[in-house]
Amino acid sequence: MLRYATLRLLGAIPTLLVIATLAFALLHSVPGGPFDTAKSLEPEIKRNIEAKYHLDESLPRQYVRYLLQLAHGDLGPSFQYRGTSVNELVATGFPVDLTVGAAALLIALTIGGAIGCIAALRRNSRWDFFLMGVAVLGISIPLFVIAPLLILVFAMWLRWLPPGDWVSGSLSHLALPALALAAPYTASIARLMRASMLEVLGSPFIRTARSKGLPGSAIVLHHALRPALLPLISYLGPALAGVVTGSIVIETVFGLPGIGRYFTTGALNRDYTLVVGITVIYGALIVSCNLLVDLAYALLDPRVRYQR
Fold it and tell me: Model confidence at 55, in pLDDT bands (50, 70, 90)?
């Protein structure tokens, strides 16, 4: 297991290199630059600014310089937020995304998993049709509709929760963004869990357990639940990366200081280092989450072994 994890981590280095290279090349191929403003700068001032950030060098040299910085964990300075490094911006916004994403994933797993199990155990009943109908509705409605609706109901009508802003450690400020972000993942997990549970309940070892006279609750908890989680674990790889990196829509609607807004602003203003840095972080997060998913397979299913 340790050897497999080490090889996967080493294999992630070329992947991140490709991500950084593509992001660097695409951004520099876009017309304009980070210091092209509506009011043109004096040529001498513009040359001095470009020299400060090494933008006067050739593109290959800029690329090599950036890779050397990246190898030392330095994402470089931000061109848009003067006097601030990309590392500082990420350190400011990433904890917010991590908090909201972790809360949203916990909600999605708890509610979605329970809905999926209930629907599978009540197959083709009214409960099954109703719960799966709600799940389809949750997948179909986009976040830019769900988020304002939650604000309208819980903040404006009921006045239970604040409509936005961010206060670190405040559960009331965390609730609405986490619920809105969790909605589509809850629906997807519910549908996936139902399909997986139905497949497991039809397996021979479940029929054997029933023939021995075991109660239904014991069969589900001790025999069916663990193998039914395997397809869900596969889904959690990209889902975990998705909820942790957050949503630009959620950050905009609720006024969250996450890194999504930095990414959008950086892309619009040709902030090369900021966009490439956040892209590399997203890539590293996805690779790490997929690795954790693969390792979790071995813990849930003893038949799975990773050997090279």
Answer: confident
CA–CA gap between residue 237 and residue 285 (Å, rounded): 10
Q: What are phi and psi of 149, to 5 degrees?
A: -65, -40
Cα radius of gyration rounded to whole Å, the chain? 24
And the tokens for 134? 């709600």
Residue 287 burial by Cβ neighbours in a 10 Å radius (0-12, 13-18, 19+): buried
| pLDDT of 308 | 47
Q: How many CA atoms lie within 13 A of 70 on its CB side?
A: 22
**What does the domain layout of the chain look like in residue ranges?**
91-257
| CB neighbour class for 257 (10 Å; exposed up to 12, middle 13-18, buried from 19) | middle
The CATH classification number of 91-257 equals 1.10.3720.10
Please state at what angle helix 171-201 crosses helix 126-140, rounded to 10 degrees: 130
Side chain identity at residue 5, one-letter code: A
Per-residue model confidence as pLDDT tens digits over 260-286: 888 888 888 888 899 999 888 888 888
Q: If we measure between CA atoms, which residue out of 205, 177, 26, 19 comes closest to residue 101?
A: 177
